[in-house]
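Whiteboard transcription, Tuesday session. T.W. wrote the structure tokens on the left side:
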């Protein structure tokens, strides 16, 4: 008979038993800064309720403040695109090893089921999850209350197995609210901390499924201390970002580089870049990994000359504010090929063949178009580090990406120039464009210590945003777009 396990999520599968930071993520990403600040302000009240043995009331208050009035679809989107990364970072691998030895796996949580179901089923490979159920009105908005609370957990766990069966193994804390409800139903109990020394059977899985795509602006899990730091830093960060962006637009690159270092920014350069193209020769194609919209801008700053960049589906505001020329592609292969060739005849060009950014240590599939158009290919491994805010988004406003990047106290970019591809590794030697693209992807991944994947732009946006990532071109004038973007910038910090 296949062994079954029921595991408590908080404090067992996840190392941290405190769920407050996950509700802070819901508040920030699904609603905005005001709700985020309100929930943080209530944290002492929630802790006081727990201290007096009324942790259930503290949980209900947390759920109400984080979700009341928020559309269920938005909560689902955050649970799909944002939360799994933070859950995975907190997984107790020893507990996972025990959990993964069982053929049938179930998880119990005190959080709303909608917040954890995606992670539990896809990353932990569990069969089902039992948690509290959010109440939703007829318009699809959460009321902030729960329909099925913690007191129903034991009954719902029993229903999973039927009258004649009971779970073989229960993993949890006997003194916790969830653990005390379902552990008595199990034939055998095991409590954290866990120690494992060997694989128990053929059902063992080495690790949870990795998170390749994730979204959201916060780079750190917003524990109360981190959330307070974020709130205090945001006004300073906005001012700092405004200064940094203005310097990049208004001043020469050499001067901007010096001042950016004084303002906390840092660029680490490795390898030797090629010299500028001469008037008698075609330009070099810099093939870069795509981490943020800042990649070609940083490349130009390092080379101390403005390298035009191939772009697609970025906001008009980003193009207006860009300190380097941009070449907007159409996704029509012949048209794009002619545009790139014309630009290479004029000089150097930067391209990111992944077509979209990826935050995790993975490279998406490279488009092979660049390999067909030139043999003068210089791979460039780009990477970045930030402390508070991510500089990419799939669900939000892309025009905010550079702003969030420059809002970080000490943003760091790493640029590694590889040698120009030898002639025998290019299409001129008979290699197919796909072979050349795959080769460039592999050497860039090896340089960064990343893993190559076959995922594409469409895969990313379908996972994170439920669309293909196509942004319709807007015909409004630049001034109108600029004002519209400013409204969005203000709105993102108010109501998101």
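and on the right, the sequence the group agreed on:
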């Amino acid at each position: 008979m296949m062994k079954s396990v029921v595991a408590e999520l908080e404090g067992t599968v996840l190392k941290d038993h405190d769920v407050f930071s996950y509700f802070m993520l819901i508040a920030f990403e699904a609603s905005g800064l005001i709700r985020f600040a309100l929930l943080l302000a209530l944290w002492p009240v929630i802790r006081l309720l727990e201290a007096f043995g009324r942790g259930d009331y503290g949980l209900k208050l947390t759920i109400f403040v984080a979700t009341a009035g928020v559309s269920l679809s938005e909560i689902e989107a955050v649970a799909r695109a944002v939360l799994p990364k933070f859950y995975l970072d907190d997984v107790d691998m020893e507990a996972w090893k025990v959990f993964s030895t069982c053929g049938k796996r179930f998880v119990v949580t005190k959080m709303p089921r909608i917040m954890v179901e995606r992670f539990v089923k896809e990353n932990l490979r569990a069969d089902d999850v039992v948690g509290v159920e959010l109440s939703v009105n007829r318009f699809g908005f959460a009321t902030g209350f729960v329909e099925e609370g913690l007191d129903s957990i034991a009954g719902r766990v029993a229903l999973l197995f039927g009258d004649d069966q009971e779970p073989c193994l229960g993993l949890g804390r006997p003194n916790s609210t969830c653990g005390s409800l379902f552990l008595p139903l199990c034939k055998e109990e095991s409590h954290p901390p866990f120690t494992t020394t060997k694989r128990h059977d053929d059902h063992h899985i080495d690790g949870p499924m990795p998170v390749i795509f994730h979204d959201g602006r916060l780079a750190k899990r917003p524990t109360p201390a981190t959330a307070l730091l974020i709130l205090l830093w945001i006004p300073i960060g906005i001012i700092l970002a405004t200064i940094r962006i203005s310097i990049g637009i208004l001043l020469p690159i050499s001067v901007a580089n010096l001042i950016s270092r004084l303002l906390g920014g840092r660029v680490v350069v490795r390898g030797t870049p090629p010299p500028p193209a001469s008037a008698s020769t075609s330009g070099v194609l810099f093939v870069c990994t795509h981490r943020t919209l800042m990649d070609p801008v940083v490349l130009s700053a390092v080379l101390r000359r403005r390298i035009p960049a191939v772009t697609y589906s970025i906001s008009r505001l980003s193009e207006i504010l860009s300190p380097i020329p941009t070449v907007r592609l159409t996704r029509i292969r012949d048209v794009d090929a002619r545009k790139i060739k014309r630009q290479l005849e004029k000089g150097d060009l930067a391209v990111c063949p992944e077509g979209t950014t990826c935050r995790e240590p993975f490279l998406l599939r490279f488009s092979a178009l660049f390999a067909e158009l030139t043999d003068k290919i210089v791979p460039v491994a780009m990477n970045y580090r930030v402390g508070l805010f991510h500089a990419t988004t799939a669900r939000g406003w892309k025009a905010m990406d550079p702003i969030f990047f420059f809002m970080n106290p000490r943003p760091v970019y790493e640029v590694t120039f590889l040698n120009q591809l030898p002639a025998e590794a290019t299409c001129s030697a008979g290699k197919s464009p796909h072979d050349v693209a795959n080769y460039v992807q592999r050497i860039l991944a090896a340089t960064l210590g990343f893993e190559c994947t076959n995922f594409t732009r469409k895969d990313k946006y379908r996972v994170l945003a439920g669309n293909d990532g196509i942004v319709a071109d807007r015909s409004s004038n630049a001034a109108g777009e600029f004002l519209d973007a400013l409204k969005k910038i203000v709105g993102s910090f108010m109501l998101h």
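Someone added at the bottom: Residues 275 and 303 are 9 Å apart (CA to CA).
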